[in-house]
Amino acid sequence: MPDPQKPRQGDAFHAFIIPIGLCMSTTPHLVLVDGSGFIFRAFHALPPMSSPEGVPVNAVFGFTNMLQRLLRDHVGTHLAVVFDAGRQTFRNEIYPQYKAHRPEAPEDLRPQFPLIRDATRAFNVPMIELPGYEADDLIASYAEAVERSGGRCTIVSSDKDLMQLVSESVSLLDPIRQKPIGRAEVEAKFGVAPDRVIDVQALMGDPTDNVPGVPGIGPKGAAQLVQEFGELEAILAAAPEMKKSKRQQSLIDHAEAARISLRLVTLARDIPLPEPVDALGCREPDAPVLRDFLERMGFHSVIQRMGLGALAAGRPVGASRNSRDETTETAGGDKPYGPYETILSMEALETWIGRARDTGYLAFDTETDSLNARQATLIGLSLAVAPGEAAYVPLRHEGTLEHPASGQLEVEGVLDALRPLLADDSVLKIFQNAKYDLLVLDHAGITTVTPVDDTMLISYAQSAGEHGQGMDELSRLHLGHDPISYDSVTGTGRNRVPFAQVPVARATEYAAEDADVTLRLWQVLKPQLRERQAVALYETMERPLIGILAAMEQAGVKLDAAELRRMSADFGSRMGEMEIGIHALAGRSFNPGSPKQLGEILFDEMSLPGGKRTKAGAWGTDSSVLQELADAGHELPARILAWRQLAKLKSTYADALVQQMDARSHRVHTSFQMAITTTGRLSSNDPNLQNIPIRTEEGGRIRRAFIAEDGYVLVSADYSQIELRLLAEVADIGPLKEAFRLGQDIHARTASEVFNIPLEGMDSLTRRRAKAINFGIIYGISAFGLARQLGISAGEARRYIDAYFARYPGIRDYMDRTKEDAKRDGYVTTPLGRRCYVPGINEKNGARRGYAERQAINAPLQGGAADIIKRAMVRLGRRLPQSGLDARMLLQVHDELLFEVRADQAADLAAFVRAEMEQAASLSVPLVVETGTGSNWAEAH
């Protein structure tokens, strides 16, 4: 199975549009994409991304990749994307509280809704929506219509509410995991057949959608009742005769609520179809239109994958500066990719092990059954010792009647044979995304793999932001070779098989090629480290972090699930209390989570100023609109903002973290992405622990649920104002450097310098204004932005900024110099030598260019801070095990490190960590680290 950094997709544009033209057949196979459901899943599954114009696009990127895969693999004869037309549907007439408490979409997601519709149009795929009905109802009605005609329907969604539709001719496909969902999967989830799912849902209810259900009956109890009595009415009829219990009484008392719930969860299958099925036939995308959209989004990797890149300067757009001839010559020249050997005897394995010892290096790759390395089972492994010379060792292939998987070696015997080689310091082991493979091997019982090179990080150290770092993209850029796709090996849609069921011969072609490509990439990319002056960055920072981060992921951090549940209940209760006050201010009850209802109250009924209608005709009520009204003294918008913040904390953290906790260890294990950002910063996902809010009391409570084991405490160590210190360093600002050396309050010192007032007796308002300028300058704040932040006029804000630059002209010089460097070279450099590429810096479009210029100014500061904390982590990773302290590093969150240590050693650890972090880099200003200790993260921070 491919790892998270090896997206196995893509063929040239003509290669996927030809099958689309041939996909029509006499029996319809309708593929319906649950567009609304996918948007939210993609948003939370993918790391933050922005278009060249600075608009968030991670959900758009996920949606685009999913659509491209569907078009390329032509799994159906007909295709449509189905969207929700609005929040109000016929279910609100049945039960006004239905979905009433749902918070507004996250701020970074809202601008992506129209872009996803643009993406659908760009791919020339029909869109379906209908006011008054949810997307699920449209999907159900189309599935019913196709099923009646004798056709098949595949629903691209993993939404549990759609599982009631599963039948012999209707199935679901999880768009994130690419996992088919049929009758067996539905029964495993609900404990009943698909046609009885609605009865289970009616009994258990759904707090997410405000479906009441029957109190006290959960999934297991509901399934038992359905298995014993049948449909809901039969259960309610039998309730009086059941054994006296709380469950029996609850069924009697809440029978009507259960009936209402059944109506709410039952999908409408007979609504008028907005477009006939025949009108949804596969269509070829218009290449220029599609390319324009992808360029506007900045999805250059998709452009290349689809063969839409125009030739420029004799090479495909986005290609490496090396010519293809030079690249392939250094990476095996005309050596073919295969045929490869399948290793089925210990003698053959020992021969390959001997060859690796002779050459002194070995490219290595694992095949598994999961993208979660901690949970993955090893299916096979591949190795390469020279270009074109690679092999695959199948371990757990199941085989089929047509392709029996006989002759596989015993797993432990293979691991025992490889263990000495993988631990041999004289043989270099080469991986692509080594951290994933090392975690897989550790899970399989091989705990020592050394030394290690990682082609992903070798590339990232010299080209952060220039292009993606996945193996397929690197292969196309540097080798001119398009590797075998994972989809072509395992199949797609309902026909996809687990990798363990791929015939061994085909698995060998795919897996051994991975090792071959990795080796060739290493031969090309490793010498380029010196050319791009990135040797020290890779060798002293990126490479040592592989094992350190793997250990942190293994350790995880403990959660107090009970506290999270209490928090969730408290947030829900407070939201209810807040709603009473909100309704009183509005003069009537309404759903605070409904933008439409809120807009009508604010601008139609209360006639507040500043209202603007969206393209759809509704009043705009996003956070910026509400904040302006709140700043103007209007109480209702301020209360709505507070309600929304609480709703977001409840759903995104208090509720979600419990679901992501390891049931055995009660710890949550994030995954650190090492090669995603332009600046060198690490990112975190599954779950994302780097976006937990801490500036509000409620947000701080979330960190209280991160706790230490009994007898241990947490220690937090945080760099103080590191980006401002780096600004003083790179811009060479004498007064700021002096203030840092003297340990002065940097914001008070700035206020004194800029506003020409004494430090003594500095009032808090003046200091706050200086603080806003200090931090705003780092991110290229405008006069308008500063005015809004401080509640002053734009003219006054402009005077503040002008005064700041007049007092510190070196900062303006730094900003101008950095922009010119970026325009000339295409990248900027951090103080420790990392190149951060800046796409769009020479754009003709002013908005895109302005965004790129702000990126260029900030990248050396943010990237410099990332480099320094990485250096600190490497120091601590080496020295902490030798310190005699019973402690381990758990998390890295921007400028902060979190540790778990035996309680009686907390003070010693804090002093040790502070010293190591403050010595991580030598600057003309001191690095200062603040530490804290507590039983939970909030206390420690």
Automatic annotation (TrEMBL):
PROSITE patterns in UniProt: DNA_POLYMERASE_A
Matches recorded under Pfam families: 5_3_exonuc, 5_3_exonuc_N, DNA_pol_A, DNA_pol_A_exo1
Chain segments annotated as coiled-coil in the UniProt record: none
Domain of life: Bacteria
DNA-directed DNA polymerase family A palm domain location: 699-905
Alphabetical keyword list: DNA damage, DNA repair, DNA replication, DNA-binding, DNA-directed DNA polymerase, Exonuclease, Hydrolase, Nuclease, Nucleotidyltransferase, Transferase
Catalytic activity: DNA(n) + a 2'-deoxyribonucleoside 5'-triphosphate = DNA(n+1) + diphosphate
GO biological process: DNA-templated DNA replication; double-strand break repair
Similarity annotation: Belongs to the DNA polymerase type-A family.
Name recorded for this polypeptide: DNA polymerase I
